[in-house]
Structure formats: structure tokens, C-alpha cells
Write a structure and sequence with these properties.
The protein is of the alpha/beta class. 28% of the residues lie in helices and 22% in strands. The protein contains 20 helices and 31 strands. It has an 8-stranded mixed beta sheet with strand order 12-11-8-6-7-14-15-24, with helices on both faces. α8 packs across α9 and α17 packs across α18. The chain starts with 7 loop residues before the first helix and ends with a helix. Bound molecules: 5'-O-[(S)-butoxy(hydroxy)phosphoryl]adenosine. The site of 5'-O-[(S)-butoxy(hydroxy)phosphoryl]adenosine (WT7) has 24 residues, from α12, β20, β25, β26 and β28.
């Protein structure tokens, strides 16, 4: 573990008390997709990779695959090679013979006066085909081209994604809340000539003008060398244009008007090779700009389908609601691709969970008869705070609840189990990452007991282990924190970093691979970048990132990203971001900056820095506080000691600072911050 990471977290981990098990209700186990303990034996490491054939069998292939796993280009693994399939066909067409008139997507608009829309599989088929035809004809795209989608939580977002998949186009969805600059970065890196957007959407009771942001994104992208030739603009209200930014002649097409030309159009799904990329999803890393995690078609689809069945226990008769945003990986895998591949009914809610009051979620759950509820600890913390008694007022009954994105405190877990699960729902704490496509650790809900605060063992097929600094595996029950790694490849893992193979290899395998040329997967453990401990029962407790990544409300922000944004303000000499513990969000970024010689601190500079961050990244990266300090605490070699700043911000122990180049600055900053 890096020096920076040897913080209080990992020390205290070993002092946490062991929590007691909770057992799944018999009623749940009886109906669970996976409830036979004997099946788990088939997932032992000796049986890798053959056990993944069963995952691929959950899909419909045009051409059967020949090899489960191909290691010839290690560690860029290939899955189900020789096979051909289409993700859109698997999520839609194949369900039509038996589920055509079943709801695929329930869209709940934020304003409660607006009706919930129920889109059947047949309707989804029609909408995806028509939009795919429009996309193909107007934007002149061919297989493998990238298409950026910058949209909020509306049903047209998965329709756009599935249309891309149908045509063999690689979509790159940019989280709706990201700024024009963040959107432009992704357009440039992915080389997208087409941007799909919407005029406006509701959030916290306000109709937000969204298209105006994407006009700016197009300008920034062009300045960065990537021209957006076509922008397709959906309308939040049919037949009504709700943005102050008018369509740009020659570039923009208002989808609603244009779509009329495609009524009745059908598009044959492209037969994609299993290893052809399906989408890119950008995520924050240790250095520089976000990296494009490239996910493949066959491996990814097989993995998310199997996980949606085994762990989320989705059956076609379930109503499944995941409150994540489709703009993140959770939404891709577990709102769109996994649930739809299983013929499930998936809920999309446009707005914020507490609008207009803390009962909103529970009204949606009650009115739609939601049976599976998937959310994040940060949402649970906030619902517990603003409306602890609210769930009792509504008639809903979940059979399963899932959490994702960050560790959940046992106390919060118990409230969730008691008040929202009403003591009847099974809970899975799913640990994974943008890079991994689907779950790494979780209990199998129909088999294993739950333990508050622990994600559980590796999911069937995944063999995690805790590695120490030297690459030794710490045995279960070692009571020592280390780096959680995955010993075996799995089909859901990203294929590479878009356009940057070296970064992929160095970042995820550089630390523990000793034989660079090896074609043996055993030589390539995948490093997650998280610290964890494993208890004697094999369960993992995740402690958080060991690298320069901050987890805010379950979303990853790179410290470098925030710091680089701050550095764009001319007066700033140095910037350092630290994570501060936050009751609801888990953590929040706090920023320290020092100024160039001759510049004096002022509220204006502070505001400039705050604005630069919101412009470069988005509101999500807003810092709790920006401290303008006379100097940064530094080592003799000039390295900024973020650990010391972090301790100051968290009112913790700064430790021994005598070896710093400027120890006196520590007290000075402490006085400033404690005021
Ligand atoms: C990081 C990945 C995976 C979708 C959402 C976030 C943290 C994720 C858990 C969990 C403890 C968790 C890790 C991980 N994390 N799930 N159940 N318990 N920590 O995806 O933005 O790629 O972030 O989130 O630190 O590395 P992401």
C-alpha cells in the first residue's frame, strides 16, 4: 500500500467489530434464480474459464462462439471468440415472441402531474428501429464509429443507446450533469462526429435548458480538433422546443420532426463480433484526463445478464428500479443492458429522490409495484436523514435491495433493512467499478447470509485476493488491509483504455505482473486500486481507494482533474485536493491553493477557482471549501503532502511533520482551518 494510503482508515479497519449475519427470508430463497449451493462448486478457479460458457448461453447468438477465452493478446483478453451477436437484438427482438406487450421501460417524469409512461417491448422495438434508421441516414455513420450521447434520465437515452448498438456504433454516454467542457473532452477523445442530446429536462422542479450546454460543448470540441458534424436534439415535450438555444442550421436536427419520415422503418441489427466494442465509459483515474473504458459486446453482455439474474435476481415478472444515472456504468449495466437482456421491466426516474418531498421514491415504488430496489449508500443516508419515517406511509414491498458505489455503514444498513426492506427484503452490497463492467463482490442473495458493511465474497466466477506490497496473498482472516485484486480474468472486464493500451496495462496490471510477455492469465492479477480486508469467512470489507481518487456520493473524481481545473486560473501557483468525510456523501473534496508571487488572496480569486471547477467538470466536483494558503506543506524534495492537508481538513492527527521542508506552515494552516 502506498505511503499516502497508510492512513487512519486502514488502521481502524482491523478494529471494526465483526457484524452479525442476516439470513435471507425463505420466501425469497424459494423463488431465487440461484439458490442451489452445489452450483457454486462449478465456479472454482480450477474450472476457469469454462464456467463462463454458461454466461454466454444466456444470450442469443447469430453465430455460436468457438472459444470461451482467448489469451493470445494478454492482458487484453478476448471472450467468446468466433461468435456473433447484437446487443439491441438481445435486449429487444428476442423477447418479442413472448413478452411483446410487457413493459420494458417505465419512465417516471419528475413533475408528479405528468403521467408515467409505460413502454412495452413492442413499442421499444418500434422506437429503437425508427431512431436507428434516422441516425443511420442523417449522420452517415458506419460500424465502429463513435457517437457521443449527453442526456439526462429520460426514456430516449436508452433508446439512443440501443439504436447505436443496433447499428454497431460505439456509444459514449456523458453523464447529463457534466459541463460543456467535460462533454467536449469526451467528444474529442472518442472522436465522435455525432452528439445526441435533448432540449431540456426537469430537476428539482426546474426545467433545465440542456441544449445550450451542448452548443458550447460543440465549440469547445471544435477548438480541440473534433468537429461535431451532426447534433440530434430530442424534445422533452413532443412537438415543443424547450431550449433558448435554437437549432443550428446545417448541424442540428430536431428528432421529433425528422422521425416522422421514419415511421415504420426497420433496421436489421448488425451482426457484431463478440469482441467488437459496445461502448466507452469515461472514468477518473490517477493521472490526467478521464480514461475511456472500452467494453466489448459478447463478454460484457454475457456478464451483465448473468449478474442481473444471479445477484439482482431479476425475473421477467419483476419490476426493477435502479436509482443510478444511466450516465454512469451502473446505469449502463443495471438499468439498461442487464435487465432488458433478461426481459425485465426497468424504471427510469427523471428527477431527484427528494422532490417534491422525501416520500417521492416510495410513491414511485408503491405505484409501480417495484419488487427490486437498487440504490447507493449516499441516497440511503440522505433519505434516512430527511424522512426516516416516510417509508412506513407507503404500501410497497421489495423482495431484494442492492447497494452500490461506496461502503455502507452498518448502522445505515440496518435502517435500510428495517425501514425500507421492512425486515423482509434481502440485501446485496455490490462492489465493482466502471472498469469491471459488472459485480466483483457480493453475496449470492438466495444462498449466502448478509453482513452489514461487507460486500461479501467474490461473486460466482470471481476470485479476489488481498495482495500486500510485495505481491504476497494475505489469507482470509489476516486482519490486515491490502490491495484487493482479482486473480482471474472475467468477461465483463473492460477490454482496454480507448486508444491507450499502455495506460491500460500499466494501470491495472503494472503493479503485480512480473512477466511482461506472459500469455498465462495467472500472471496478470487485476488491481482494483481499492484497499480492503478479508475476514475469515471470506467476506471483503472495502476501505476505499488507495490512489488519488475521491469517492463523492458514489462517484469517482480524480484529484488531478480538480487540481488541473483550479490551475487554469492564472493567479494560482499550486493546488491540492483532499477528501473530507461527509455525513451524506461519504466524502467531499476540499481544495487548498497557493498563489503566484505578488498576488494577494481575495474572495474573487476563490470564486474564480470555484467557477473553473464547475466549468471544467460540473457541479458534482464542487469543493466544500477552497482555502488560499501562503504555502503548501512539502517534503524536502518538494512534493505536496496531501496526507497532512487531509488530516487538517478532517480535524485529525497530522502526525510527525518535522521532516517537512516547511513544518511551520502546518500550524499556520491549522489555525486558518479551525477558525
Ligand atoms: C469505486 C468504483 C461500480 C459502480 C459505481 C461506482 C467504490 C464501488 C462499492 C461497494 C465499497 C465501493 C470503490 C471502487 N465502490 N462499490 N459496494 N463498497 N466501495 O463506479 O465510479 O467506477 O467507482 O467505487 O472504491 O473502486 P466507479
Amino acid at each position: 500500500m502506498s505511503k499516502e494510503a497508510e492512513g487512519a482508515d486502514n488502521q481502524s479497519a482491523t478494529r471494526w467489530k465483526e457484524e452479525e449475519y442476516f439470513y435471507p427470508a425463505k420466501e425469497f430463497t424459494a423463488q431465487a434464480n440461484l439458490n442451489d449451493q452445489a452450483v457454486l462448486a462449478g465456479f472454482s478457479l480450477e474450472k476457469f474459464p469454462d464456467y463462463y460458457a454458461g454466461f454466454a448461453d444466456m444470450l442469443t447468438w447469430y453465430k455460436p462462439w468457438q472459444k470461451v477465452f482467448d489469451a493470445s493478446d494478454a492482458p487484453l483478453w478476448k471472450w467468446f471468440t468466433g461468435g456473433e451477436l447484437n446487443a439491441s437484438f438481445n435486449c429487444i427482438d428476442r423477447h418479442l415472441p413472448h413478452l411483446a406487450n410487457k413493459t420494458a421501460i417505465h419512465f417516471a417524469p419528475e413533475p408528479e402531474g405528468e403521467k408515467i409512461e409505460h413502454i412495452t417491448y413492442q413499442e421499444l422495438f418500434v422506437k429503437v428501429n425508427e431512431f436507428a434508421a434516422l441516425l443511420r441516414d442523417t449522420a452517415k455513420l458506419k460500424r465502429g464509429d463513435r457517437v457521443a450521447i449527453h442526456m439526462p434520465m429520460v426514456a430516449e437515452l436508452p433508446i439512443a443507446m440501443l439504436a447505436c448498438a443496433r447499428l454497431g456504433l460505439i456509444h459514449t454516454v456523458v453523464f447529463g450533469g457534466f459541463s460543456s467542457s467535460a462533454c467536449a473532452d469526451r467528444v474529442i477523445d472518442s472522436g465522435s462526429r455525432v452528439l445526441i442530446t435533448i432540449d431540456a429536462y426537469y430537476r428539482s422542479g426546474k426545467l433545465i435548458d440542456h441544449k445550450v450546454i451542448d452548443d458550447e460543448a460543440c465549440q469547445l470540441a471544435a477548438a480541440g480538433g473534433q468537429k461535431v458534424e451532426t447534433m440530434l436534439v430530442w424534445q422533452r415535450f413532443a412537438g415543443k422546443y424547450s431550449s433558448a438555444a435554437p437549432p443550428v442550421a446545417g448541424r442540428d436536427i430536431v428528432v421529433g420532426d425528422e422521425l416522422k419520415k421514419y415511421y415504420g422503418a426497420r433496421v436489421e441489427p448488425e451482426k457484431m463480433r463478440s469482441e467488437d466494442p459496445l461502448f466507452l465509459m469515461y472514468t477518473s483515474g490517477t493521472t490526467g484526463k478521464p480514461k475511456g473504458c472500452q467494453h466489448g459486446t459478447g463478454g460484457y453482455m454475457a456478464y451483465v445478464t448473468a449478474m442481473s439474474g444471479m445477484i439482482l435476481d431479476i425475473h421477467p415478472e419483476d419490476c426493477y428500479w435502479c436509482t443510478a444515472d444511466i450516465g454512469w456504468i451502473t446505469g449502463h449495466s443495471f438499468i439498461v443492458y442487464g435487465p432488458l437482456a433478461l426481459g425485465g421491466s426497468t424504471v427510469i426516474y427523471e428527477g431527484v429522490p427528494t422532490y417534491p418531498d422525501a416520500g417521492r421514491n416510495w410513491r414511485i415504488a408503491q405505484d409501480l409495484g417495484v419488487t427490486i430496489f437498487h440504490t447507493a449508500p449516499t441516497a440511503i443516508r440522505s433519505l434516512r436523514k430527511v424522512g426516516p419515517d416516510e417509508p412506513k406511509k407507503y404500501q410497497f414491498k421489495f423482495k431484494l435491495m442492492a447497494t452500490v458505489g461506496e461502503p455502507i455503514e452498518p448502522e445505515v444498513w440496518r435502517w435500510f433493512e428495517r425501514e425500507i426492506g421492512k425486515g423482509q427484503a434481502v440485501i446485496v452490497d455490490t462492489y465493482w467499478q466502471t472498469e469491471t463492467g459488472g459485480f466483483l463482490c457480493s453475496t449470492v442473495p438466495g444462498i449466502a447470509p448478509m453482513k452489514p458493511g461487507s460486500a461479501g465474497p467474490g461473486v460466482p466466477g470471481i476470485h479476489p485476493a488481498i495482495f500486500d506490497e510485495e505481491g504476497n496473498v494475505l489469507p482470509p482472516g489476516a486482519e490486515k488491509a491490502g490491495n484487493i485484486c482479482i486473480r482471474n480474468p472475467w468477461p465483463g472486464c473492460m477490454q482496454t483504455v480507448w486508444g491507450d493500451r499502455d495506460r491500460f496495462v500499466a494501470n491495472y496490471f503494472g503493479r503485480y505482473n512480473t512477466k511482461r510477455d506472459s500469455k498465462d492469465w495467472r500472471d496478470w492479477p487485476y488491481m482494483t486500486g481499492d484497499g480492503a480486508i478479508q475476514t475469515a469467512d471470506g467476506y471483503f470489507r472495502i476501505l476505499g481507494r488507495i490512489d488519488d481518487v475521491i469517492n463523492v456520493s458514489g462517484h469517482r473524481l480524480g484529484t488531478k482533474e480538480i487540481e488541473s481545473a483550479a490551475m487554469m486560473v492564472p493567479e494560482i501557483a499550486e493546488a491540492a485536493v483532499v477528501a473530507v468525510a461527509h455525513e451524506i456523501k461519504g466524502s467531499e473534496p476540499e481544495l487548498y491553493v497557493s498563489l503566484k508571487p505578488g498576488v494577494s488572496p481575495s474572495p474573487e480569486i476563490e470564486k474564480k477557482v470555484a467557477d473553473a471547477i464547475v466549468f471544467q467538470i460540473g457541479k458534482i466536483a464542487k469543493c466544500r471549501k477552497i482555502w488560499i494558503v501562503p504555502d503548501m506543506p512539502k517534503t524536502r524534495s518538494g512534493k505536496i503532502m496531501r496526507r497532512v492537508l487531509g488530516a487538517i481538513s478532517n480535524k485529525g492527527d497530522v502526525g510527525n511533520t518535522s521532516t517537512l521542508a516547511n513544518p511551520e506552515i502546518v500550524t499556520e494552516i491549522q489555525n486558518m482551518v479551525s477558525k
